[in-house]
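Structure ticket #2291
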Amino acid sequence: QVQLVESGGGLVQAGGSLRLSCEASESIFSFGSMNWYRQRPGEQREWVAHLATGGNTDYADFVKGRFAISRDNAKNTAYLEMNSLQPEDTAVYYCNGQIGTTYYWGQGTQVTVSS
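Resolution: structure written out below.
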């Protein structure tokens, strides 16, 4: 069974940085794409960033220029580098990976940004 495990969340002050990790239970090449989503308190889950197998990336407007998605093939791990964090970035961040027509989710990692 495919598993995705996020880590790296925590408490950070506004303007700070965090790097989230998403470790996959199998080769990251199995995934057609990797994505990060987030769910802010009281709101629906929203898409944050996309990484295609070929390396193309895309970002939601509210994180462009601040966040970067990447992967380490040898470690079967995807990352979300988050800089210039603001209190409105407080959310549970989820990793999502696509294999064929199936999307797999991690359990989420909490990011809290204090003002």
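Closing remark: The mean pLDDT is 95.
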